[in-house]
Specification:
The N terminus is likely disordered. Helix 2 packs across helix 13. The protein has about 300 residues and is α/β, with parallel strands linked by helices. The strands form two sheets. The chain has a six-stranded mixed beta sheet with strand order 3-4-2-5-1-6. Strands 7-8 form a two-stranded parallel ribbon. The chain is about 35% helix and about 15% strand.
């Protein structure tokens, strides 16, 4: 990308694309299951969706069909290293519907309607090196994700970004994609424990730090947490006193911005074994129904 094109990308906005960033500095809070579930639901409702997997665990990529990469297939690391553009790394999301034939492994997968992904390759030797790469002047800078999305503005109705459980440079680049003119927000999926409750406070502090930095403020970059998604909420068959107490505290503190609850279900862990998002794996399950309610609460009604 030339300097003039990069400058243009940095000052224009994503006025045709909604951006949802799933982030929280806590592991195992359902960022991936929420991101992939909502992607599948939005696709089924007629929205063109792009998922971006920034997490070195690569779980969103595996759930959406890319545990294995074709020879030469670029992924998110190649984009960070500026060996491929964000657009060049886009592939259609899919799920495994049949046994894998070593002669033609792609034949075992069915496409997920309207859903695409920039996947992360768990076998890439640099998959755990995002921080080093994004600090290397020969690789992408803080605006690489913002620029790549700006180049594709209008191709997607929604971009869903699955972040690692840190506030390192990879996650910050997702936050930087959210300026005051972008229809977007940071959505923290959170479990009902005190540890994750404290993580919300740290997230709000981090977002304020980014908004206050002059280099971002002059570009109108204003990432905000507008809503909170409570996952693994207690119900009649699951939950100790700690879970119920934390849920009550979350409802008291964030009641006005809480999305519909996602209750605990044994279906959720199956998405990692079966490599398939909840709404396709178990469409009539409680979490599939509840994620549908979340999609509606976010304003994504049926369009086709």
């Amino acid at each position: 990308m030339t300097a003039s094109i990069a400058h243009e990308a940095r000052i224009r906005t994503l006025d045709k694309t909604r951006v949802l960033v799933f982030a929280l500095k806590a592991g195992g809070t359902a960022k991936t299951s929420s991101c992939t579930s909502l992607a599948a639901i939005l696709g089924a409702r007629g929205y063109k969706v792009l998922v971006i997997d920034l997490d070195p665990q690569c779980n969103s990529s595996q759930i959406l069909g890319y545990r294995r990469f074709r020879d030469g297939q670029p992924g998110i690391i190649q984009v960070m290293k500026q060996e491929a553009s964000l657009q060049e790394a886009v592939v259609q999301a899919r799920y495994q519907a049949d046994e894998i034939d070593p002669e033609d492994p792609d034949d075992a997968y069915d496409p997920i309607e309207n859903v695409y992904i920039v996947p992360a390759n768990s076998n890439d030797p640099d998959v755990d090196e995002a921080e080093r790469l994004l600090n290397d002047p020969k690789c992408a800078d803080s605006y690489w994700l913002r620029e790549g999305l700006a180049d594709m503005d209008g191709q997607w109705d929604a971009v869903l970004i699955d972040c690692p459980a840190t506030y390192g440079r990879a996650t910050v680049t997702a936050f930087v994609a959210l300026d005051k003119n972008v229809d977007g927000e940071v959505i923290p999926p959170i479990l009902c424990t005190l540890k994750e409750g404290d993580a919300l406070v740290r997230l709000e502090k981090k977002l304020q730090e980014i908004r206050d930095l002059r280099k971002y403020a002059v570009k109108g970059i204003q990432p905000e947490m507008k809503r909170v998604l409570v996952c693994c909420a207690p119900n009649s068959s699951f939950g100790r006193a700690e879970h119920w107490k934390t849920l009550g505290e979350l409802q008291e503190t964030y009641g006005d911005v809480l999305l519909p609850l996602i209750h605990w279900s044994g279906v959720i862990p199956s998405i990692y074994r079966d490599e398939c998002p909840v709404p396709i794996l178990a469409p009539n399950s409680m979490p599939a129904q509840e994620y549908n309610k979340v999609a509606t609460a976010l304003g994504f009604t049926q369009i086709s």
